[in-house]
């Protein structure tokens, strides 16, 4: 593993790179635009059907195919030049959102269009992330990655808030046209502001899906990369189940609406953790803190066994998610551990596994909540995350 850089990067260093500014803008436009599109479609589905299930299915439709795309299409991230792939991806988002804005489609067709766009989401994300190590050498990669994490969370929250505000003055169709404009701007940025950099050289393959499977297997069989992938996936996936219990826990406290405060505290902790770890902790210290920070994702949740009141519960949630900054060091190690020609797919596999693991963690916590109290399930989530961190200590030190 490459030694960590000795000096911390600054925001002006990363934003001084023109291509990074473009990629950063693309990420912000995508997350914000997709959030607006999702809330508009969910409201539209509920208005048309009166079914909460229909609204929830539309909300989740863009995420459901993420695993399939990660399993079959990720090799595109290393085989197609970034400008061409990202232009095509945002053009697909533009076409899908415009068709949805026209309205009049039956619900199954709406969901099918969202699934099509969602299949290529992991490829687009992997392509962007694979460019960062080349653009931001040394500690710049960690700072740039932390900016993406913080801004994605902020753009998602802002997009959902903006979507709700827009729906109060516009129809769902009108709101969808604004999301279409966002996708059009992203398409233009990708086409005209990204340099025409060739894809990394890699041996010819028999096909996209076969190459994706082959490289995923290679990454998972190698002890070093497998350990780093598990170190990134497990503490987060096991601890995130606590967020799935926010509503029933708040209900036990007598105020189900307070779940919003718990989730906001979790988001604030993640933002603060990435800000501090990415910008203010020197690289050498960051590497040494990787294991303690991973353990922090679970340790505070153990105290939920005592069923704390809302202020303490919010503080514990924020403390736990502040440890998620450990992921920055793990990602840097993963980037260093894989050859450049499969870097995009490695980053894509990391992201696909993380999304799958979080969905599984939330589902498992919900299932346990059928027979245990929310407080005890949250404490179990914390214990599992802490145990996983200690079991993977050699990859986190």
UniProtKB/TrEMBL annotation:
List cellular component terms (GO). plasma membrane
Q: Which residues cross the membrane?
A: 53-74, 94-121, 228-246, 258-277, 349-369, 375-393
Q: Which UniProt keywords apply?
A: Cell membrane, Membrane, Transmembrane, Transmembrane helix
- Give any GO molecular function from the UniProt entry: transmembrane transporter activity
SUPFAM superfamilies linked: MFS general substrate transporter
Q: Which InterPro entries match?
A: MFS, MFS_trans_sf
Q: How does it sit in the membrane?
A: Multi-pass membrane protein
Chief subcellular location equals: membrane
Q: Which Pfam families match?
A: MFS_1
Q: Where in the cell is it found?
A: Cell membrane
Q: Know the name of this protein?
A: MFS transporter
In its UniProt entry, the species of origin is given as Actinomadura darangshiensis
